[in-house]
Amino acid sequence: MSRDQAIRAEALESLLIERGWLAADAVDEVIATFNERLGPMNGARVVARAWLDPAFKQRLLADGTAAIAELGFGGEQTEKLVVVENTEQVHNVVVCTLCSCYPWAVLGLPPRWYKDPAYRSRVVREPRRVLGEMGVELGPATRVRVWDSSAEVRYMVLPRRPAGTEDLDESELAARVTRDAMIGVEVL
Amino acid sequence: MELSGELAPPMANGEAVFEAPWQGRVFGMARALAEAGLYSWVDFRRCLMAEIARWDRDPQGPYAYYDHFLNALERLLAEQGLIAPGELRSRVEALAARPHGHDHPPA
């Protein structure tokens, strides 16, 4: 029951603060960071930059952690960020089969379905079918690659740039990029 | 409260980051304690994976991610000798015994 969990959480936090293991405002700070500073808007900026700047895209695919640091992202966790590029031949999709590992620095916290058992197990077994259910129709010639996140490596998908966006600038392009596209369950 | 513009919580695709305030508190505690060096995030992840694996093997009730998260945190804090299960139980009972309408943190 939710009231039970709320009281357990409150009990834990009060004990941790009393013992001096947790600063009184530490939890508020983490929540504020995830609410305000970390989220898909960061990943969208990374994607837009990569669409516009081939040299940046090359660096991003070679070393995601270093490339997003150029835009001031990262540092929340020490895990490596690997960016995988969608092409005509390959569609990438990301999962964490064992829990909920996710590239916080660029996407914030994962959506509910990402953490659910159905997605975690099914997207590995029958990715095409799961993608179809989520509205992604892929041609028979497109290969699907599923990337399983771990404590050490987090993945983000670099979606294909939609047609008809040649005249858009970086912030206009970023506005077209969605969280789901960067997980690989949407095509823009 | 104004919930649009630059400071809006990320709600792309219509989802809030946390579904209830306690979920944010639990997530915030788990992160803050790791940042303070009381354990490593890898340790926490191990506990979370174990909680989720337990449910995967023998689902008791609907899947509730943050319930697993809270269980994992309690287990890790007990394992590390930071908060003993008995202490936590007494505190929970004390808080639960507050008169109705007063079950919120003291000002």
Task: Set down the secondary structure blueprint.
The complex is a heterodimer of chains A (188) and B (107).
Chain A: H1 2-18, H2 26-37, H3 40-52, H4 54-62, H5 64-70, E1 80-85, E2 90-95, H6 104-107, H7 112-115, H8 117-125, H9 127-133, E3 143-148, E4 153-158, H10 170-176, H11 179-183
Parallel strand pairs in A: 1-4, 2-3
Chain B: H1 21-35, H2 41-57, H3 65-79, H4 85-96
Helix pairs in contact in B: 1-3, 2-3
Brief characterization of the structure:
Chain A has 188 residues and is α/β, with parallel strands linked by helices. Helices cover 50% and strands 13% of the residues of chain A.
Q: What general form of chain B does the structure show?
A: globular
How would a crystallographer describe the biggest sheet of chain A?
2 strands, parallel
Cα radius of gyration of chain B in angstroms = 16 Å
The structure class of chain A reads alpha/beta
Average residue pLDDT of chain B: 80
Number of alpha- plus pi-helical segments of chain A: 11
Distance between the termini of chain B: 21 Å
Strand content of chain B: under 5%
Give unreliable regions of chain A as ranges. none
In DSSP terms (H or I, runs of 4 or more residues), the helix count of chain B works out at 4
Task: Give me the side-by-side strand order of the main sheet of chain A.
Answer: 1-4
Largest interface by Cβ-Cβ < 8 Å? A-B, 47 and 53 residues
What does this entry look like structurally?
- Chain A has 188 residues and is an alpha/beta fold.
- Chain A has helices spanning 2-18, 26-37, 40-52, 54-62, 64-70, 104-107, 112-115, 117-125, 127-133, 170-176, 179-183; strands at 80-85, 90-95, 143-148, 153-158.
- In chain A, the strands form 2 sheets. A two-stranded parallel sheet of chain A has the order 1-4. A two-stranded parallel sheet of chain A has the order 2-3.
- In chain A, helix 3 (40-52) packs across helix 4 (54-62), helix 3 packs across helix 10 and helix 8 (117-125) packs across helix 9 (127-133).
- The longest helix of chain A has 17 residues, at 2-18.
- The termini of chain A are far apart.
- The mean pLDDT of chain A is 91.
- Chain B is an all-alpha fold and 107 residues long.
- The two termini of chain B are 21 Å apart.
- The relative contact order of chain B is 0.10.
- Mean pLDDT of chain B is 80; it is low at 1-14.
- Chains A and B meet through helix 1 and helix 2 of A and helix 1, helix 2, helix 3 and helix 4 of B.
